Sequence to fold (232 residues):
Amino acid sequence: KQEVTQIPAALSVPEGENLVLNCSFTDSAIYNLQWFRQDPGKGLTSLLLIQSSQREQTSGRLNASLDKSSGRSTLYIAASQPGDSATYLCAVTMYSGGGADGLTFGKGTHLIIQP
Amino acid sequence: GAGVSQSPSNKVTEKGKDVELRCDPISGHTALYWYRQSLGQGLEFLIYFQGNSAPDKSGLPSDRFSAERTGGSVSTLTIQRTQQEDSAVYLCASSLVGLAGPQGIQYFGAGTRLSVL
Fold:
């Protein structure tokens, strides 16, 4: 059974710092990996999706990398801002042959950016 | 619609009552997913619909849980004889197609917070 682990569980840093969030998964036979953010009382917002054949994806100040063979992904946030404060979730998709499986999520990293 | 809509946003019920949670996906999205997020737990996948059919119902926590989708659009998740451990946020997502690729990116609703007293 696929298990996704995120470290750290919580992180608080001053505004302006660059930071790295970590995600690991036990079964490397994934189809893709996604990073989401979740704001209190709201649904999830997809940030980046990395296909299994890709090594990284970038969007603005965000960069996500994927090392499928070692079962690891990192989310790099450059020049952090208070608006980046949220819970960040990592999720993987396993290909089920006929179609998509649901996502398997980590428990998230709760990020606070201090003004 | 503009996004995935879930109703109600909050539901408080008494133990033993039945509840129905509704999800209205993005127009044109053929795939629909239900997840549960319990306090202290990660997001747990419950069930997936491709059109009106659910290929695999094994993710549902117990036989008190059922889900249906009609007309390839709205879905309802029903919990019978609710228990306190059912208290959680239930999230719905939809995607353009039920494939594990860019077209399969899932868009989430804001969720229904269920509290069983």
